[in-house]
């Protein structure tokens, strides 16, 4: 067996394990994933002109959805948001509680769950989404349409800002370069663990 074939077998085993394990394993994976998102959230760069900081959460959410698939990947984000909303201080800046969910960044947090669901589902069911071009396309849609879309809608509701251009300046455009880097990193790591077929 060639090295390429061995790598593909290894990828297939990871894929099978993360997708086909029993409920207790899925929950354990998701709890680990939620903790990983919480750690990544502490990589935080505040910006003076917006209440939304640059964080490592987006990378963690997208990569876990690739790695763990629909169930454990989505549960990771759900547990992260749920436990953080209940007071566990693992949101960005070691914050927790319902006030964070109800604040300016709440839409992004909810968007994480839906983005993980989308990416996990696509990677689970479609071989094209496991290849680099399809994977990048999936991550772009999940990040910019789902996370940013919900984020700026929520931001507008919380701040009372109704100008789309102002919302884009506050809650989306400043994050595009960093998000593109996070997407490239998540996709590159994802290709290392996803089978091609």
From TrEMBL:
<dbReference type="Pfam" id="PF02632">
    <property type="entry name" value="BioY"/>
</dbReference>
<keyword id="KW-0813">Transport</keyword>
<dbReference type="InterPro" id="IPR003784">
    <property type="entry name" value="BioY"/>
</dbReference>
<feature type="transmembrane region" description="Helical">
    <location>
        <begin position="98"/>
        <end position="123"/>
    </location>
</feature>
<feature type="transmembrane region" description="Helical">
    <location>
        <begin position="49"/>
        <end position="68"/>
    </location>
</feature>
<feature type="transmembrane region" description="Helical">
    <location>
        <begin position="75"/>
        <end position="92"/>
    </location>
</feature>
<keyword id="KW-1133">Transmembrane helix</keyword>
<dbReference type="GO" id="GO:0015225">
    <property type="term" value="F:biotin transmembrane transporter activity"/>
</dbReference>
<feature type="transmembrane region" description="Helical">
    <location>
        <begin position="135"/>
        <end position="155"/>
    </location>
</feature>
<keyword id="KW-1003">Cell membrane</keyword>
<dbReference type="GO" id="GO:0005886">
    <property type="term" value="C:plasma membrane"/>
</dbReference>
<keyword id="KW-0812">Transmembrane</keyword>
<comment type="similarity">
    <text>Belongs to the BioY family.</text>
</comment>
<feature type="transmembrane region" description="Helical">
    <location>
        <begin position="21"/>
        <end position="43"/>
    </location>
</feature>
<feature type="transmembrane region" description="Helical">
    <location>
        <begin position="175"/>
        <end position="194"/>
    </location>
</feature>
<protein>
    <recommendedName>
        <fullName>Biotin transporter</fullName>
    </recommendedName>
</protein>
<keyword id="KW-0472">Membrane</keyword>
């Amino acid at each position: 067996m060639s090295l390429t074939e061995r790598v593909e077998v290894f990828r297939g085993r990871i894929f099978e394990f993360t997708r086909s394990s029993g409920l207790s394993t899925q929950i354990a994976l998701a709890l680990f994933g939620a903790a990983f998102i919480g750690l990544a959230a502490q990589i935080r760069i505040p910006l003076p002109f917006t209440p939304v900081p640059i964080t490592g959460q987006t990378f963690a959410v997208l990569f876990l959805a690739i790695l763990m698939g629909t169930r454990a990947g989505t549960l990771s984000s759900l547990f992260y948001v749920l436990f953080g909303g209940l007071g566990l201080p693992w949101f960005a800046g070691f914050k927790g509680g319902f006030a964070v969910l109800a604040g300016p960044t709440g839409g992004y947090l909810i968007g994480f769950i839906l983005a993980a669901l989308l990416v996990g589902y696509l990677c689970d069911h479609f071989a094209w989404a496991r290849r680099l071009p399809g994977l990048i396309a999936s991550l772009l849609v999940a990040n910019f349409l789902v996370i940013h879309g919900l984020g700026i809608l929520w931001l507008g509701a919380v701040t009372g800002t109704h100008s789309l251009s102002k919302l884009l300046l506050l809650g989306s455009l400043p994050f595009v370069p960093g998000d593109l880097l996070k997407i490239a990193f998540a996709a590159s790591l994802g290709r290392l663990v996803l089978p091609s077929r």
